[in-house]
Protein backbone atom coordinates (compact mmCIF):
# COMPACT_ATOMS: atom_id res chain seq x y z
CA UNK A 1 0.00 0.00 0.00
CA UNK A 2 2.81 2.43 0.84
CA UNK A 3 4.48 1.63 -2.47
CA UNK A 4 1.24 2.27 -4.37
CA UNK A 5 0.62 5.57 -2.57
CA UNK A 6 4.17 6.72 -3.27
CA UNK A 7 3.76 6.00 -6.99
CA UNK A 8 0.43 7.85 -7.14
CA UNK A 9 1.86 10.78 -5.20
CA UNK A 10 5.02 11.00 -7.32
CA UNK A 11 3.20 10.73 -10.66
CA UNK A 12 0.62 13.36 -9.66
CA UNK A 13 3.09 16.01 -8.51
CA UNK A 14 5.49 15.21 -11.33
CA UNK A 15 2.80 16.09 -13.86
CA UNK A 16 1.94 19.26 -11.92
CA UNK A 17 5.61 20.28 -12.05
CA UNK A 18 5.43 20.56 -15.83
CA UNK A 19 2.85 23.35 -15.40
CA UNK A 20 4.89 25.35 -12.86
CA UNK A 21 4.17 29.07 -13.36
CA UNK A 22 7.30 30.18 -11.47
CA UNK A 23 10.57 28.93 -10.03
CA UNK A 24 9.13 28.85 -6.49
CA UNK A 25 6.29 26.60 -7.65
CA UNK A 26 8.79 24.40 -9.48
CA UNK A 27 10.86 23.90 -6.33
CA UNK A 28 7.77 23.21 -4.20
CA UNK A 29 6.31 20.66 -6.62
CA UNK A 30 9.63 18.85 -7.08
CA UNK A 31 9.85 18.68 -3.28
CA UNK A 32 6.47 16.94 -3.29
CA UNK A 33 7.76 14.53 -5.93
CA UNK A 34 10.70 13.77 -3.65
CA UNK A 35 8.28 12.92 -0.82
CA UNK A 36 6.69 10.32 -3.10
CA UNK A 37 9.99 8.90 -4.26
CA UNK A 38 10.97 8.25 -0.64
CA UNK A 39 8.43 5.42 -0.51
CA UNK A 40 9.80 3.58 -3.54
CA UNK A 41 12.37 1.74 -1.41
CA UNK A 42 9.52 -0.38 -0.03
CA UNK A 43 9.65 -2.27 -3.32
CA UNK A 44 13.04 -3.62 -2.32
CA UNK A 45 11.64 -4.60 1.09
CA UNK A 46 8.92 -6.69 -0.59
CA UNK A 47 11.47 -8.43 -2.84
CA UNK A 48 13.77 -9.08 0.10
CA UNK A 49 11.00 -10.69 2.14
CA UNK A 50 10.00 -13.01 -0.70
CA UNK A 51 13.46 -14.13 -1.81
CA UNK A 52 15.18 -17.16 -0.25
CA UNK A 53 18.41 -16.43 1.62
CA UNK A 54 20.72 -17.99 -0.97
CA UNK A 55 19.27 -15.94 -3.84
CA UNK A 56 19.06 -12.47 -2.27
CA UNK A 57 22.69 -11.62 -2.98
CA UNK A 58 22.20 -12.45 -6.66
CA UNK A 59 18.71 -11.21 -7.51
CA UNK A 60 18.60 -7.90 -5.63
CA UNK A 61 21.69 -6.39 -7.35
CA UNK A 62 20.15 -7.22 -10.74
CA UNK A 63 17.53 -4.57 -10.02
CA UNK A 64 20.31 -2.13 -10.92
CA UNK A 65 19.81 -3.12 -14.57
CA UNK A 66 16.36 -1.57 -14.56
CA UNK A 67 17.60 1.54 -12.75
CA UNK A 68 20.23 1.86 -15.48
CA UNK A 69 17.62 1.45 -18.21
CA UNK A 70 15.57 4.29 -16.72
CA UNK A 71 18.64 6.53 -16.40
CA UNK A 72 19.66 5.94 -20.02
CA UNK A 73 16.11 6.49 -21.21
CA UNK A 74 15.80 9.88 -19.50
CA UNK A 75 19.19 11.07 -20.80
CA UNK A 76 18.24 9.99 -24.33
CA UNK A 77 14.87 11.71 -24.04
CA UNK A 78 16.48 14.88 -22.69
CA UNK A 79 18.87 15.07 -25.64
CA UNK A 80 15.90 15.03 -28.03
CA UNK A 81 13.08 16.72 -26.12
CA UNK A 82 14.77 19.66 -24.36
CA UNK A 83 16.31 21.27 -27.50
CA UNK A 84 13.03 20.87 -29.43
CA UNK A 85 9.91 21.18 -27.25
CA UNK A 86 11.43 22.03 -23.87
CA UNK A 87 11.85 20.68 -20.34
CA UNK A 88 8.14 20.76 -19.51
CA UNK A 89 7.41 18.07 -22.07
CA UNK A 90 10.37 16.05 -20.81
CA UNK A 91 8.78 15.91 -17.35
CA UNK A 92 5.37 14.98 -18.81
CA UNK A 93 6.82 12.16 -20.89
CA UNK A 94 8.92 10.95 -17.95
CA UNK A 95 5.75 10.67 -15.83
CA UNK A 96 4.11 8.18 -18.18
CA UNK A 97 5.95 4.99 -17.05
CA UNK A 98 5.10 5.70 -13.40
CA UNK A 99 1.42 6.10 -14.26
CA UNK A 100 1.40 2.86 -16.28
CA UNK A 101 3.13 0.94 -13.47
CA UNK A 102 0.33 1.87 -11.06
CA UNK A 103 -1.88 -0.62 -12.92
CA UNK A 104 0.62 -3.41 -12.20
CA UNK A 105 0.09 -3.19 -8.45
CA UNK A 106 -2.86 -5.56 -8.49
CA UNK A 107 -0.41 -8.31 -9.43
CA UNK A 108 1.93 -7.58 -6.49
CA UNK A 109 1.00 -9.55 -3.34
CA UNK A 110 1.48 -8.16 0.14
CA UNK A 111 4.48 -9.56 1.98
CA UNK A 112 3.55 -12.77 3.79
CA UNK A 113 6.02 -11.84 6.54
CA UNK A 114 4.25 -8.54 7.06
CA UNK A 115 0.84 -10.21 7.19
CA UNK A 116 2.09 -12.69 9.78
CA UNK A 117 3.56 -9.91 11.93
CA UNK A 118 0.16 -8.17 11.97
CA UNK A 119 -1.71 -11.36 12.83
CA UNK A 120 -3.31 -11.70 9.38
CA UNK A 121 -2.28 -15.35 8.95
CA UNK A 122 -5.08 -16.11 6.48
CA UNK A 123 -3.75 -13.55 3.99
CA UNK A 124 -0.22 -14.87 4.52
CA UNK A 125 -1.38 -18.46 3.90
CA UNK A 126 -3.20 -17.40 0.73
CA UNK A 127 0.00 -15.80 -0.57
CA UNK A 128 2.13 -18.82 0.30
CA UNK A 129 -0.37 -21.20 -1.33
CA UNK A 130 -0.29 -19.08 -4.47
CA UNK A 131 3.53 -19.29 -4.50
CA UNK A 132 3.43 -23.06 -3.97
CA UNK A 133 0.98 -23.42 -6.86
CA UNK A 134 3.17 -21.33 -9.18
CA UNK A 135 6.19 -23.46 -8.23
CA UNK A 136 4.17 -26.68 -8.72
CA UNK A 137 4.83 -27.59 -5.12
CA UNK A 138 2.75 -28.19 -2.01
CA UNK A 139 2.57 -26.39 1.29
CA UNK A 140 4.35 -28.11 4.20
CA UNK A 141 2.13 -29.66 6.83
CA UNK A 142 1.32 -27.81 10.02
CA UNK A 143 -0.07 -24.43 11.01
CA UNK A 144 1.39 -20.99 10.48
CA UNK A 145 1.98 -19.70 14.00
CA UNK A 146 3.63 -16.44 14.98
CA UNK A 147 3.16 -14.24 18.06
CA UNK A 148 1.25 -11.04 17.29
CA UNK A 149 3.18 -7.94 18.28
CA UNK A 150 1.14 -4.95 19.40
CA UNK A 151 4.10 -2.58 19.11
CA UNK A 152 5.68 -2.58 15.67
CA UNK A 153 7.75 -0.08 13.76
CA UNK A 154 8.77 2.05 16.73
CA UNK A 155 11.60 4.49 16.16
CA UNK A 156 12.94 3.66 19.62
CA UNK A 157 13.58 0.06 18.47
CA UNK A 158 16.19 1.30 16.00
CA UNK A 159 18.08 2.87 18.89
CA UNK A 160 17.71 -0.13 21.18
CA UNK A 161 20.99 -1.43 22.61
CA UNK A 162 20.91 -4.43 20.25
CA UNK A 163 20.76 -2.29 17.10
CA UNK A 164 22.04 1.14 18.19
CA UNK A 165 25.56 0.81 16.80
CA UNK A 166 24.34 -0.83 13.62
CA UNK A 167 21.71 1.86 13.06
CA UNK A 168 24.09 4.78 13.59
CA UNK A 169 26.73 3.31 11.29
CA UNK A 170 24.13 2.50 8.63
CA UNK A 171 22.88 6.09 8.76
CA UNK A 172 26.41 7.41 8.28
CA UNK A 173 26.93 5.09 5.32
CA UNK A 174 23.61 5.98 3.67
CA UNK A 175 24.30 9.70 4.02
CA UNK A 176 27.82 9.32 2.62
CA UNK A 177 26.85 7.05 -0.27
CA UNK A 178 24.05 9.37 -1.36
CA UNK A 179 26.37 12.37 -1.01
CA UNK A 180 28.92 10.65 -3.27
CA UNK A 181 26.35 9.30 -5.74
CA UNK A 182 24.62 12.60 -6.45
CA UNK A 183 27.96 14.37 -6.21
CA UNK A 184 29.26 12.26 -9.10
CA UNK A 185 26.17 12.93 -11.20
CA UNK A 186 26.21 16.69 -10.59
CA UNK A 187 29.99 16.91 -10.89
CA UNK A 188 29.75 15.21 -14.29
CA UNK A 189 27.46 17.98 -15.47
CA UNK A 190 29.71 20.67 -14.00
CA UNK A 191 32.85 19.23 -15.58
CA UNK A 192 31.16 19.18 -18.97
CA UNK A 193 29.32 22.50 -18.73
CA UNK A 194 31.97 24.69 -17.09
CA UNK A 195 35.15 22.90 -18.12
CA UNK A 196 36.52 22.87 -14.57
CA UNK A 197 38.76 19.84 -15.03
CA UNK A 198 42.43 20.51 -14.15
CA UNK A 199 41.28 23.87 -12.79
CA UNK A 200 41.50 25.19 -16.33
CA UNK A 201 38.67 27.66 -15.93
CA UNK A 202 36.76 29.12 -13.05
CA UNK A 203 33.04 29.70 -13.22
CA UNK A 204 33.44 33.41 -13.95
CA UNK A 205 35.82 32.71 -16.83
CA UNK A 206 33.46 30.12 -18.23
CA UNK A 207 30.62 32.64 -18.17
CA UNK A 208 32.73 35.28 -19.91
CA UNK A 209 33.49 32.94 -22.80
CA UNK A 210 29.81 32.10 -23.14
CA UNK A 211 29.11 35.50 -24.66
CA UNK A 212 26.99 38.47 -23.67
CA UNK A 213 23.98 37.39 -25.69
CA UNK A 214 23.72 34.08 -23.86
CA UNK A 215 23.90 35.86 -20.49
CA UNK A 216 20.99 38.05 -21.45
CA UNK A 217 18.90 35.05 -22.50
CA UNK A 218 19.68 32.97 -19.41
CA UNK A 219 19.58 34.87 -16.10
CA UNK A 220 20.76 31.75 -14.23
CA UNK A 221 23.70 31.49 -16.67
CA UNK A 222 22.91 27.93 -17.66
CA UNK A 223 24.40 26.54 -20.87
CA UNK A 224 22.72 24.01 -23.10
CA UNK A 225 24.46 20.64 -23.38
CA UNK A 226 25.95 19.81 -26.75
CA UNK A 227 25.26 16.34 -28.28
CA UNK A 228 28.75 15.25 -27.22
CA UNK A 229 27.90 16.11 -23.59
CA UNK A 230 24.82 13.88 -23.71
CA UNK A 231 26.96 11.07 -25.12
CA UNK A 232 29.41 11.48 -22.27
CA UNK A 233 26.55 11.33 -19.74
CA UNK A 234 25.24 8.15 -21.38
CA UNK A 235 28.68 6.50 -21.34
CA UNK A 236 29.30 7.39 -17.69
CA UNK A 237 25.79 6.22 -16.76
CA UNK A 238 26.40 2.83 -18.36
CA UNK A 239 29.19 2.57 -15.81
CA UNK A 240 26.50 1.94 -13.17
CA UNK A 241 26.15 -1.60 -14.49
CA UNK A 242 29.81 -2.22 -15.33
CA UNK A 243 30.80 -3.58 -11.92
CA UNK A 244 27.53 -5.39 -11.27
CA UNK A 245 28.96 -8.91 -11.89
CA UNK A 246 31.94 -8.19 -9.60
CA UNK A 247 29.62 -6.57 -7.08
CA UNK A 248 27.43 -9.69 -7.00
CA UNK A 249 30.49 -11.91 -6.52
CA UNK A 250 31.81 -9.68 -3.76
CA UNK A 251 28.48 -9.58 -1.93
CA UNK A 252 28.13 -13.35 -2.01
CA UNK A 253 31.71 -14.43 -1.38
CA UNK A 254 33.35 -11.60 0.58
CA UNK A 255 30.23 -10.63 2.47
CA UNK A 256 28.26 -7.40 2.58
CA UNK A 257 30.56 -5.50 4.96
CA UNK A 258 33.91 -6.21 3.28
CA UNK A 259 32.49 -5.74 -0.22
CA UNK A 260 31.04 -2.34 0.72
CA UNK A 261 34.22 -1.17 2.44
CA UNK A 262 36.29 -2.08 -0.65
CA UNK A 263 34.01 -0.27 -3.13
CA UNK A 264 33.78 2.78 -0.85
CA UNK A 265 37.58 2.91 -0.60
CA UNK A 266 37.89 2.70 -4.38
CA UNK A 267 35.29 5.47 -4.73
CA UNK A 268 37.44 7.71 -2.53
CA UNK A 269 40.47 6.97 -4.73
CA UNK A 270 38.72 7.73 -8.01
CA UNK A 271 37.38 11.04 -6.69
CA UNK A 272 40.99 12.12 -6.19
CA UNK A 273 41.98 10.80 -9.62
CA UNK A 274 39.54 13.28 -11.19
CA UNK A 275 42.08 15.98 -10.38
CA UNK A 276 44.59 14.47 -12.82
CA UNK A 277 44.91 16.50 -16.01
CA UNK A 278 43.84 14.14 -18.75
CA UNK A 279 42.12 13.97 -22.11
CA UNK A 280 38.38 13.92 -22.67
CA UNK A 281 38.55 10.14 -22.99
CA UNK A 282 40.42 9.92 -19.68
CA UNK A 283 37.80 12.08 -17.96
CA UNK A 284 35.02 9.87 -19.33
CA UNK A 285 36.90 6.82 -18.06
CA UNK A 286 37.19 8.23 -14.54
CA UNK A 287 33.51 9.21 -14.51
CA UNK A 288 32.62 5.77 -15.83
CA UNK A 289 34.43 4.05 -12.97
CA UNK A 290 33.01 6.44 -10.38
CA UNK A 291 29.46 5.78 -11.54
CA UNK A 292 30.18 2.04 -11.42
CA UNK A 293 31.53 2.25 -7.87
CA UNK A 294 28.82 4.48 -6.41
CA UNK A 295 26.17 2.21 -7.95
CA UNK A 296 27.86 -0.82 -6.36
CA UNK A 297 27.82 1.02 -3.01
CA UNK A 298 24.09 1.60 -3.27
CA UNK A 299 23.49 -2.02 -4.27
CA UNK A 300 25.26 -3.34 -1.20
CA UNK A 301 23.84 -0.95 1.40
CA UNK A 302 20.28 -1.52 0.14
CA UNK A 303 20.71 -5.28 0.58
CA UNK A 304 22.43 -4.97 3.95
CA UNK A 305 19.82 -2.63 5.42
CA UNK A 306 16.95 -4.83 4.27
CA UNK A 307 18.61 -7.94 5.74
CA UNK A 308 19.94 -6.68 9.06
CA UNK A 309 16.62 -5.63 10.64
CA UNK A 310 13.75 -7.97 11.62
CA UNK A 311 10.41 -7.73 9.83
CA UNK A 312 8.89 -5.56 12.57
CA UNK A 313 11.60 -2.94 11.99
CA UNK A 314 12.67 -3.52 8.38
CA UNK A 315 10.51 -0.91 6.66
CA UNK A 316 11.25 1.66 9.38
CA UNK A 317 14.97 0.98 9.13
CA UNK A 318 14.88 1.43 5.38
CA UNK A 319 12.69 4.53 5.67
CA UNK A 320 14.92 6.33 8.15
CA UNK A 321 17.99 5.38 6.13
CA UNK A 322 16.29 6.82 3.06
CA UNK A 323 15.78 10.09 4.94
CA UNK A 324 19.51 10.30 5.64
CA UNK A 325 20.04 9.48 1.99
CA UNK A 326 18.02 12.55 0.98
CA UNK A 327 20.05 14.74 3.31
CA UNK A 328 23.21 13.59 1.55
CA UNK A 329 21.57 14.31 -1.79
CA UNK A 330 20.63 17.83 -0.65
CA UNK A 331 24.16 18.64 0.49
CA UNK A 332 25.82 17.31 -2.68
CA UNK A 333 24.92 20.28 -4.97
CA UNK A 334 26.60 22.76 -2.62
CA UNK A 335 29.86 20.86 -3.06
CA UNK A 336 29.70 19.72 -6.68
CA UNK A 337 28.18 22.94 -8.05
CA UNK A 338 29.36 25.66 -5.65
CA UNK A 339 32.57 24.60 -3.89
CA UNK A 340 33.85 22.85 -7.02
CA UNK A 341 33.75 26.15 -8.92
CA UNK A 342 35.82 27.85 -6.21
CA UNK A 343 38.16 24.98 -5.34
CA UNK A 344 38.12 21.94 -7.58
CA UNK A 345 40.62 19.99 -5.48
CA UNK A 346 38.90 20.99 -2.24
CA UNK A 347 35.58 19.58 -3.43
CA UNK A 348 37.19 16.32 -4.57
CA UNK A 349 39.02 15.94 -1.25
CA UNK A 350 35.78 16.44 0.66
CA UNK A 351 33.97 13.79 -1.41
CA UNK A 352 36.92 11.43 -0.97
CA UNK A 353 37.10 11.98 2.80
CA UNK A 354 33.41 11.19 3.24
CA UNK A 355 33.90 7.95 1.28
CA UNK A 356 36.83 6.97 3.51
CA UNK A 357 34.67 7.49 6.62
CA UNK A 358 31.95 5.32 5.05
CA UNK A 359 34.48 2.61 4.16
CA UNK A 360 35.67 2.44 7.78
CA UNK A 361 32.09 2.43 9.05
CA UNK A 362 31.16 -0.42 6.67
CA UNK A 363 34.18 -2.49 7.68
CA UNK A 364 33.34 -2.17 11.38
CA UNK A 365 29.62 -2.96 11.14
CA UNK A 366 28.82 -5.38 14.00
CA UNK A 367 26.57 -7.75 12.00
CA UNK A 368 27.36 -9.61 8.76
CA UNK A 369 24.17 -10.64 6.92
CA UNK A 370 25.71 -12.94 4.32
CA UNK A 371 23.91 -16.30 4.51
CA UNK A 372 21.78 -15.05 7.41
CA UNK A 373 18.06 -15.81 7.43
CA UNK A 374 15.75 -12.82 7.71
CA UNK A 375 14.77 -12.16 11.31
CA UNK A 376 11.00 -12.06 11.89
CA UNK A 377 10.90 -10.44 15.32
CA UNK A 378 13.31 -8.34 17.36
From TrEMBL:
Residues 1-370 form the Major facilitator superfamily (MFS) profile domain. Signal peptide: none annotated. The chain crosses the membrane at residues 58-82, 168-192, 342-365. The lineage of its organism: Eukaryota, Metazoa, Chordata, Craniata, Vertebrata. This is Transporter SVOPL isoform X5. Its main location: membrane. It is found in: Endomembrane system. It is a multi-pass membrane protein. Belongs to the major facilitator superfamily. SUPFAM superfamilies: MFS general substrate transporter. InterPro entries: MFS_dom, MFS_sugar_transport-like, MFS_trans_sf. GO terms for molecular function: transmembrane transporter activity. PROSITE patterns: MFS (PS50850).
Amino acid sequence: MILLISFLWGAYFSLLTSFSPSYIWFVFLRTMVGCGVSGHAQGLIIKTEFLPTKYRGYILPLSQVFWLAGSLLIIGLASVVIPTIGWRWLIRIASIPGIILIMAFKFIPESARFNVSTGNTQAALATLERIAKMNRSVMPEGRLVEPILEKRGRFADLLDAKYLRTTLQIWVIWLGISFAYYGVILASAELLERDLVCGSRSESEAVETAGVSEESQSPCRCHMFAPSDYRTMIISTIGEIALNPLNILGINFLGRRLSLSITMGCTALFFLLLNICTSSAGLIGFLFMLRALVAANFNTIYIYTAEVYPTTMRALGMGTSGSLCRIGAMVAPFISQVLMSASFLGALCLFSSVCVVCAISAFTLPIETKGRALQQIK
